[in-house]
Design a protein that fits this description.
The protein is an alpha+beta fold. It folds into three domains: 5-88 and 395-404, Winged helix-like DNA-binding domain superfamily/Winged helix DNA-binding domain (Arc Repressor Mutant, subunit A); 91-203 and 376-391, ATPase, nucleotide binding domain (Nucleotidyltransferase, domain 5); 213-371, Nucleotidyltransferase, domain 5, CATH 3.30.420.40. 38% of the residues lie in helices and 21% in strands. It contains 14 helices and 18 strands. Helix 10 (305-329) packs across helix 12 (345-358). It starts with a strand and ends with a strand.
Amino acid sequence: MSDTLPRPAVRIGDDRRDVNAAAVLRTVLDHGPIARSRVAALTGLSASAVSRQVVDLSQLGLLHERPELTGGGAGTVGRPQLPVDIDTGRLAVAGLHIGVPFTTFSLLDVRGNVLYRQELSNRGRTGYAVLKPLLERLPRLLATVPGGRTVVALGAVTGGTVDPERGVTVRHDPLRWRDMPLGELLTRATGLPVQVDNHARALTQAEILFGHPAARRSMVQLFVGHVVDAALAVAGVVHLGPASATGDVAHLPVPDSDALCHCGRLGCLAAAASDTTLFEAAAAAGITERPDRAELVAAVRAGDPRADRLVRDRSEVIGRALALLADVVNPDLLVLTETFAMLDPTYLDVVRAEFARRSRLRQDADLLIAQRRGADALAVAAGAAVLGVLYARPLQATAAPDRTPPTGRGPLP
């Protein structure tokens, strides 16, 4: 398995060339299979510029021609009409979502389709103990890539405050991480270039690349798990604020909640709505034997009215929090990533009803959707941490570093 890509015959330092390549690649992602002439019309580039970019991107394994789609009819002769599409057969990216109960490993093609996914239990570990068995196992997992594809990079996402430029998880309270050099450790274990990010930002990037069209105008992503995170994007760009944070919604005050937070205040969103709070409440009420996601999901599916009430109560808390976020930001789209809203649309309806009741700006809840990838959501998000770079800077992202011989292959940054 190689961790590098062939270099295109282009000047990598030419930013304009990379911008044009990104425009062509993104247009094919959105509309492919598509003729070069149509790409030129949609991007405003000349036909010759589009053809050059298609050649370069094809050499890199990102695009390929689809002559079988021409049908041999009139007007289909010549390369301007020959459809091109994203090549999903040559390259792959790996992803890791490192959560509290388990880590999700995945392999994705460059359209964000999951080729392989496996959940690995963290067995209650915290600190470096979460990573040690994972680092040992990763080389074997990477060898599972199907179809002879080349894995070009690894995306690693987790909750809390994450600095993507340094590849460091600055703070993750449930895992007891402080300044964890995640990128360096993963690069050392795999030999792959690694892109580290917060999982809410990565989910947002995945939505922009592969999801609802409104996400490219403006969106807010709310992630509710053992940690509670949010991310914001405007005009297709995911916001990264000072100190490597988008913002901290964990301590957002939730109206009518008296849950005690570890910070000492009442009614913080994380204390009122986190998976930790929910699963502990289920165990305390005798609904489950222990604080466990699978047990509570099973109780909900079995029709236990106590389990249903717990989940509905949390859904209302989430709806109130989303109403506050929507009133402050007024996005085109709100996306909720939360187990039960993805599991059963009934609970999303509860969230939406409470949202509509509480929001002063948006009484309709049409802008609010649940994450549509279901069980694959976090797997896709982890890969999107890499794919976002690839689609934004395809030539630079696949360029060999200076130390690589001209005949060698170069990694993603």
